[in-house]
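Quick check before the chapter quiz. The format below is the same one you will see on the exam, so make sure you can read both the input and the output lines.
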Amino acid sequence: IDEVLLSLPSQMTKVDPAYTVTLDFDQLPEQVDALLVFGNEDLLFMAIKNIVVNACKYSGDHHALVSLKVSPTRITITVSDKGKGMKEKDVEKIFQPFFRAADTHATPGFGLGLSLASRILKLHKGTILAESVYGNGTTFTIELPAAGH
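Here is the expected output.
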């Protein structure tokens, strides 16, 4: 999974030269095998990329922080931004296809990226949660089972 995440900064620059990503891998395990996830690498990349694109798109500084933490059974990826955040009523709906919050209609998009990401992660026996403070940014937490669990 670390290899999937390592390609994000260059991919974000291709989406928009203003988009930047910081990777936080401070707590990587010594055993490389602990970073393995069973699944389709391209689909997992697409899911995570959709979340990171949104973080960059809706953040005033167009920056996302992507962190990776590993436990013996789970791999946790967090994607945080310092954007305007979302209202609580919108957070509950963001994984529905075609949903777009009322205050995002000026920003290009179709409301499919987070729905697609959620479905891909479920296919991989993973979960995604969103936490947002209106006016203070959003954090997405992705959990995937480590290979063999």
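If your answer matched, good. The chain has a mean pLDDT of 88.
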